[in-house]
Amino acid sequence: MPNAQLYFITDQYYLDFPDEKLMKNKDVIDGVPHNRPCFFAFPDKQNPEIYWVVPISSKYEKYKRIEQSKIQKYGKCETIRFGTVLGRNTAFLIQNMCPATKKYLIAYIDKNNMPIRIDNRLAEDVSRNAQAVLAMAKRGAKVVFPDIFQIYRGLEQQLQSGKPHDRGER
């Protein structure tokens, strides 16, 4: 998968991993469903077949206020990062990230059929903060809304069952 690329999550993901805390897959605007949110994806360090996907929101001001509140309360905020996507200020919602595999990801492409990407510095910032948040979550902190570890285990099971077992036969 290309670095710093953006994706949408398939409807099947939400069927296979029902979790009310996952960001909803479709917004309805003027009665028409749209693929939203889009996600920034980066590979898991232990299992590169699994990706961590971080939703992106255009509600920049809303999340700036939330970030400021967290900074006042905790002295920092690693669960929300900010950057520019397609010329717009956006919020990367690490607090809403979840794991997925290629099977569930659809590339976000432009009208010229080119993948939409973000700046490598922004990708590094989001990835670094997401890794820190994952480390906190692994220690038991409630810093991510969905049950990411249950979904992760389900993805691992899918990957294991989808691979042929090596019985020494050639």
Task: Walk me through the structure.
By secondary structure, the chain is α+β, with helices and mostly antiparallel strands. It has one domain: Thiol Ester Dehydrase, Chain A (Roll). It contains four helices and nine strands, in the order E-H-E-E-E-E-H-E-E-E-E-H-H. Strands 1, 4, 5, 6, 7, 8 and 9 form a seven-stranded antiparallel beta sheet that branches. The protein has a two-stranded antiparallel sheet with strand order 2-3. Strand 4 and strand 5 form a beta hairpin. The longest helix has 19 residues. The radius of gyration is 17 Å and the shape is globular. It starts with 5 loop residues before the first strand and ends in an 8-residue tail after the last helix. The relative contact order is 0.21.
